[in-house]
Amino acid sequence: MSILPPIEYADASPDVRAVYDDIMATRRVDSVNNFWKVLANDPATLKRVWESVKTVMAPGALDPLTKELVYVAVSVTNNCEYCIMSHTAAARAKGMTPAMFSELMAVVALANETNRLSNGYRVDVDPRFRDPLPT
Amino acid sequence: MSILPPIEYADASPDVRAVYDDIMATRRVDSVNNFWKVLANDPATLKRVWESVKTVMAPGALDPLTKELVYVAVSVTNNCEYCIMSHTAAARAKGMTPAMFSELMAVVALANETNRLSNGYRVDVDPRFRDPLPT
Amino acid sequence: MSILPPIEYADASPDVRAVYDDIMATRRVDSVNNFWKVLANDPATLKRVWESVKTVMAPGALDPLTKELVYVAVSVTNNCEYCIMSHTAAARAKGMTPAMFSELMAVVALANETNRLSNGYRVDVDPRFRDPLPT
Amino acid sequence: MSILPPIEYADASPDVRAVYDDIMATRRVDSVNNFWKVLANDPATLKRVWESVKTVMAPGALDPLTKELVYVAVSVTNNCEYCIMSHTAAARAKGMTPAMFSELMAVVALANETNRLSNGYRVDVDPRFRDPLPT
Amino acid sequence: MSILPPIEYADASPDVRAVYDDIMATRRVDSVNNFWKVLANDPATLKRVWESVKTVMAPGALDPLTKELVYVAVSVTNNCEYCIMSHTAAARAKGMTPAMFSELMAVVALANETNRLSNGYRVDVDPRFRDPLPT
Amino acid sequence: MSILPPIEYADASPDVRAVYDDIMATRRVDSVNNFWKVLANDPATLKRVWESVKTVMAPGALDPLTKELVYVAVSVTNNCEYCIMSHTAAARAKGMTPAMFSELMAVVALANETNRLSNGYRVDVDPRFRDPLPT
């Protein structure tokens, strides 16, 4: 049971319904996830976060599947069960195979391992890594 | 200054040199990073971690650039400066542009934001996300 | 099922009962939470942590509700379910409305987002932020 | 040195300048922080994040100082140096005294302590904490 | 329900069975834990991670019980329920008493507290702590 | 430069001096670390945290060196530079060799790796791990 209850479409205010409608149209689905239904208790945040998700996860310099894989990687590192489950499903819908999921987990786990080796030994950053990216 | 000093090639034991040689041959470079030089204080861990990195980061179901992007995403979430700097450089060498880096940061940041919204509101996982991946 | 079992008042030693009594008197309630019942397996830690909580959460330069909001913010960032649930209830008892909870979540989530943008881009701290607080 | 360079006003595109102008007007200051100058490498993210910050940190059900204290609490928990320094300065500008800062640190530290006691002992959530907030 | 299903011995490929056999022989048990059964969806990672665990957790400069206590400490800090439960059981099998578990939790919690005090106040590292370990 | 300045013995109030004296007497040293000098801006927290450290880190069911190793493990996982440096020095003073430090890092890193594999795959806890510890 979430701390504030999910708000169903039938009970939603017009501004919440407008966001739900946009989510369903953008994603070509006929319902919205619990995340949005719970966030709807705060309509301004619902709208703002949805617009961020819509913008950030759209195709750009990175393709949508890569973005979902990164989303899962962050969610696993932070141990957000909801986000792992929902973004794993989203990644799968965009083409992630079980083999890709397993490789993703191996990379995420390895990075968590070497992050602690670097931080624990206090390894100095090599000077050549300090060059900024060319723009 | 790292907690244990970096070990230069000239001062390394034969088993450490063998790992350094493999790193340089695999990556087609003529020196190894501080991370490996510091890890060389523990030759068994040096060898084990290098072999994990070589295996996990090799091309597979995911391509090497995607793996580097995921590595950076985890390192940013954990705030490992060394890993952010070294894997950003590695990603750049594999084709990451500044625009891709900026989109990556936007996705990582957004995932960290929605992870806390999901966890904070204690959103229940939608039943349909509970389906295991088809294998 | 917790790793060590909760210890009920009837089964508690005199020193544990003394802490339970102080918790109930301080909070004007007639039972103690599972957190304290489980911590009672280690009476010295029970007493020490309770005295810390009693001292730190008392009115001071910050009011008790603000302190509870901060407690929830930390617990959400770390994803401690027990602490989120118990301190959300405590904050509510001290006057937190659903609108305040939703704003709190929005701030916590935003801070988690910008923390990663700052860390990921390795933004240099502006010199003027380095001034110590005037005392 | 940040991974992408800060963009000064004189070198900024019109859309970046428009955000800088809004930041300076909203905050009644005559320059913008490094965070925004670095984020300006990605004008869409600059604009989106600034609008989120402007909206979320505005007075609402919680006052601006409480929001800054929460921001600092999250940043300390995540160890984001930039965010700790900049939001401590912001909180100070909104009235935080050194005594308030010290109490804030005590609460943040205590919450991090009890988060691990709860998670480590796997304390079961008391049934009464499962009631949703009344709306 | 895990994201990929556990693979039982009867259904496992020869290379997976070889790892399961080695786990059971090394630990003198007659079945393997769910962790390994789920990891078996990715036989290369199963083998690599098992060999890392077997090597790293073996007696060395640190004894096996100390290593298990450290494992639990990390898992509590990260809030990994599976790892807390399985490594608490492993530590118990190697001699951890309830009193040792409680002291461990007290140390872990205290370290999490002082970590945030140090990071929050931005305490400068004392010069004498910067000496590398003598080798 | 810390956010509040370190307070030297010569400038300290009697209650702060009393804590400094107890730290120096307990540890048989002739000065206190920056951590305590900065915490002295908040004398009540200084005294409370010092008493917690003195109590929790004293010999008990776990020996002092094991406790220091656990402290370092937590600090590495959280990336607290100050705590890593100061508790590595403390562990060294209590007998930690470089080989023990390297093994500690290997265990910490491995635990961080398997924590993410367990959380990422959402591995179900084996029923037998759910038995509480016998008391």
Notes on the protein architecture:
Six copies of one chain form a homohexamer. Chain A contains six helices and no strands. Chain A is mainly alpha-helical and 135 residues long. In chain A, α4 (64-78) crosses α6 (98-121). The longest helix of chain A is centred in the last third of the chain and has 24 residues, at 98-121. Chain A is elongated and about 55 Å long. The interface between E and F is large, with 74 and 74 residues.
What's the gist of this structure?
By secondary structure, chain A is mainly α.
Shape of chain A: elongated
Ranges of chain A where pLDDT stays below 50 over 5 or more residues in a row are none
Largest interface, counted by CB within 8 Å of the partner chain's CB: E-F, 74 and 74 residues
| Strand segment tally of chain A | 0
What value does the Rg of chain A take, in angstroms? 19 Å
Could you name the key traits of this structure?
homohexamer; 6 helices; mainly alpha; elongated; 135 residues
Task: Produce the secondary structure layout.
6 copies of one chain form a homohexamer.
Chain A: H1 14-27, H2 34-39, H3 43-56, H4 64-78, H5 81-93, H6 98-121
Helix pairs in contact in A: 1-3, 4-5, 4-6
